[in-house]
Write a structure and sequence with these properties.
The structure is a homodimer of 533-residue chains. By secondary structure, chain A is of the alpha/beta class. The first copy, chain A, is 39% helix and 12% strand. Chain A has 20 helices and 15 strands. In chain A, helix 5 runs parallel beside helix 6 (212-221) and helix 15 runs parallel beside helix 16 (443-463). Chain A is globular, with a radius of gyration of 23 Å. Chain A starts with 11 loop residues before the first strand and ends with a helix. At the A-B interface, helix 10, helix 15, helix 16, helix 17 and helix 18 of A face helix 10, helix 15, helix 16, helix 17 and helix 18 of B.
Chain lengths: 533, 533
């Protein structure tokens, strides 16, 4: 498969920060050249991986360089795994590269949480520390205490380590993946690369359609960011889409298959319990989580407790063998502001807190998924209760969308809630695109969704006083005050767009470096007048 | 001039609510037809005026019907005014209709505040009450106490009365107007109609370029919503753009001219004082308000106090004769998050509070303009101090933008801050478009800016528990849960867009009324599965 290469942003180049503890740690950052004597460049966090390295040779059929393999193998606690994985059958686009799965040696726990608790600062932790401008031991402590996770499956050595935690930069996730109705492997791989190009810190492959496994293989092998999934989607496909036919065994085998492929975190709806079902009946919009609805139906058919809850210890055993992280799913998240913060939602949240402790007992990393649709006045309660019930595990929220009737613009209704909950301590924001509630997003939607959630994340970081957010913001304001238009374009989230929006409005022949824009014209520019004073 | 007629939204028709106190009050609302037995239609607030009345005959050369003339004249306190106004000279597009200005009879105060304080429930107040689902006497009390304004110049009888106050629906303003570099009368009139089409509650004509007066005449005569201006822009044009040549007399004559034309509210930067100038020097981005910068420069040139401050009593005398409202401008608003909530900003806010009391002593209505650029963690302080210093007068904020580096997407950075400050009690949100900081907005930008700020306003109303916001939201969620796609489209802010986004992704021949969308496909739709349980 051929793809147009990912181009770097204008005026930027990739540089690498060297590790001090681990000499083979090289952390990529984007260096933006500025025409400011006092600040000739600004280095910013960069998720784009080798794609934007002018010197890298890329071949999506072979996947990215496996930068973590020496670290993973070097720790001596993993071994070539029992190969549950099977190549995609009947799929015309099998991934041509070779991927030999690893798993933990018997008695070993190759998780970042286990290392952190043992006092080890891993290369992954140092990588994160350099990216975030933090002390490596601070990173270790945050991981040890469960306040942050480094989603980094030992079978995804291509992944550049990153952290999700409220004392780190706020991250965003982009969902990709096909449904039965649309989209193929190539489109999904393109969407992943596109999402990373615009700044997605992680991607979730939510495919429910054809070739789920093969699509995922292409994505993981080429993704420089952690990849998450919801394994119950594939498990359900395996049993022909019949919810009643789902079994623990089918789910378990799917989970192991995905662990072997290298999925870094899994949404697991283990908190959707039989006892909570009566609480859902009071709702306007019932259950709106796909996983939650599947499990609710399964419990009804079998009159049994959720098998993800009853087999949770076994789930922990599996995830710990690969250092896959739990993203404990909010299967009962509200699907309308009417249902926000109701008994069903918070009953599940409390259950997730109990499961968090169980996972931590296995040294398995955990984050908690959050709503959904929540009006502005009810957002804080969500964050407060999550911290309380889930013992400080990172919060990963979808939006929240602050109104229900924003269809067509739900990326904005989500960005509003996301900025607010981010400023209160949510660690990762799941993006929402303009097509939310309407259709699967196309590439333009993916970009739009990412950028507005990058804005939300940056707003949250600024509110929390993160030094990197303040530096970037002040650099932009200074460039604006000094009419350095080229620098302003470069410091925005989409330099090409900001340049086009301004320059398209200039008259032919007008100097684009003029000390004004068409908003106020030359005589009414406040900043120009101020500087004359 | 010919314009394409403004079409109504699909599935909607205009109906009128009759006044009980005043039989000639007819309040337009948009009635959205729904296929829901329990709620066959939903009536929503409608700012579009006669344009979306299928029975109205429109002629932009004559202007809108003057619905308020009988009320204004009937009160017996106005008289044909001394005609300061002069038709536009040398302008090729003079407004052909006739407009004979009125002003107060000697000793009379034809302002809504004066009437309210005397216990009169005017037709304007009843109009507002019906629009907002409130008791007319509640409206009167809010106006009497200065907590709300009804901007309704006696020379803008075409305007449908509306209220700006924190106990009313949150309003949004759209800025239009040309600069020296771009845009003509026709474009600005089209922008006004376009802004109203998408839901702007007021428009401000910020023109600084050619034909300021004639442009404004076309806009006011055809605007069903209040029109605001910043008179110092035209005053400066009159003295050839030389700040040093500005005089109180030139400003006063301009203000009277605009009062006679029918401008409903004026941004007056009377709080930019000599004593505050040293505070500005500490800033990263100085003064970013055009009016603020002009006055700062004027004070420096003349070494005198701001003439708007020293002549404030005379300003009150002028505005009270026409029931024009003050929008006390924040000339020292921060232009970067770095400068937010600084001494300069709050010193001015306090000064505006003092001026508010002076205006109220004249029965002149007042609102207060607010920032600007403010990070999320500093928004609440702005609202709290505005309420405290300005004695409960309505707050009218620009954004605030919660980050500085969002150029190209500043409509979103603004909508985030606007939703938050709206939920805390800001009465009107000034929109920001995607071209903010880059260029004058085009029609697409105007629409985008309005819609995301309508979302912010709705999010604020929902957070405040406004019954109309809750009803609309729940109607949407119920339609979503029941897969009533047509109803969903109709309930969104842009029905055509939401329909297109969904239906473009359907396969040819697929039934658009299907109980699923391409996000999840038919087998993974959570709401469908839930309903099967």
């Amino acid at each position: 498969m051929k793809f147009s290469p990912m181009t770097s942003f204008e005026g930027s180049r990739k540089v690498y920060l060297p590790g001090a503890l681990h000499p083979d740690v090289r952390v990529p950052v984007r260096e933006i050249a500025l025409s400011d004597d006092k600040m000739p460049f600004l280095r910013v966090y960069d998720v784009t991986g080798p794609y934007t390295d002018a010197h890298a040779l890329m071949d999506v059929g072979q996947g990215l360089p496996r930068l973590r393999t020496p670290w993973i193998v070097g720790r001596g606690d993993v071994t070539p795994g029992p190969q549950v994985s099977r190549p995609g059958v009947g799929c015309h686009a099998r991934f041509p590269g070779v991927h030999a799965p690893l798993s933990a040696k018997p008695g070993c726990t190759p998780t970042q949480m286990a290392y952190a608790r043992r006092g080890m600062v891993t290369p992954e932790m140092e990588f994160v520390a350099l990216r975030e401008g933090l002390d490596p031991d601070f990173v270790r402590l945050e991981v040890a205490h469960g306040r942050a996770i480094i989603p980094a499956n030992i079978n995804h050595p291509e992944c550049e380590p990153m952290a999700i935690g409220r004392n780190f930069l706020t991250k965003i996730n982009a969902n990709i993946g096909n449904s039965a109705l649309s989209s193929g492997i190539r489109e999904e791989l393109e969407k992943m690369l596109w999402a990373v190009r615009w700044g997605a810190d992680t991607v979730m492959d939510l495919s429910t359609g054809k070739d789920i496994r093969t699509t995922r293989e292409w994505i993981i092998r080429n993704s420089p960011v952690p990849v998450g999934t919801v394994p119950i989607y594939q498990a359900l496909e395996k049993v022909g889409g019949k919810v009643g036919d789902l079994t623990w065994e089918a789910y378990r085998d799917t989970l192991i298959e995905q662990c072997e492929q290298g999925v870094d975190y899994f949404t697991v709806h283990a908190g959707v319990l039989q006892g909570f079902m009566p609480l859902v009946k009071k709702r306007l919009t019932g259950i709106v989580s796909r996983g939650g609805a599947i499990l609710a139906k399964w419990m009804q058919i079998h009159a049994q407790e959720n098998f993800l809850y009853t087999h949770f210890e076994e789930l922990c055993e599996i995830l710990k063998a690969y250092d896959a992280a739990f993203s404990l799913g909010d299967g009962l998240r509200p699907g309308s502001t009417h249902d926000a913060n109701d008994e069903a939602q918070f009953a599940e949240l409390k259950a997730l807190g109990g499961l968090t402790r169980k996972a931590w007992a296995h040294d398995v990393q955990v984050m908690i998924e959050g709503p959904g649709h929540v009006p502005l006045n009810k957002i804080k309660e969500n964050m407060d209760l999550q911290l309380e019930h889930c013992h400080g595990a990172p919060f990963y929220t979808l939006g929240p969308l602050v109104i229900d009737m924003g269809a067509g613009f739900d990326h904005v209704t989500s960005a509003i809630g996301a900025a607010v909950i981010g400023s209160l301590g949510t660690a990762m924001l799941c993006y929402v695109t303009p097509r939310e509630h309407l259709a699967l997003p196309d590439k333009d939607d993916v970009k739009e969704g990412i950028i507005v959630h990058k804005i939300a994340a940056h707003a949250a970081d600024l509110a929390k006083g993160h030094p990197m957010a303040i530096t970037l913001n002040d650099a932009m304001s200074k460039a604006r005050y000094e009419f350095r238009w080229e620098d302003q374009y470069r410091l925005t989230l989409d330099p090409e767009r900001s340049r086009r929006l301004r320059e398209a409005s200039l008259d032919a022949g007008q100097d684009p470096s003029a000390r004004c824009c068409t908003m106020c014209g030359p005589d009414f520019c406040a900043m120009k007048i101020t500087q004359e004073i």
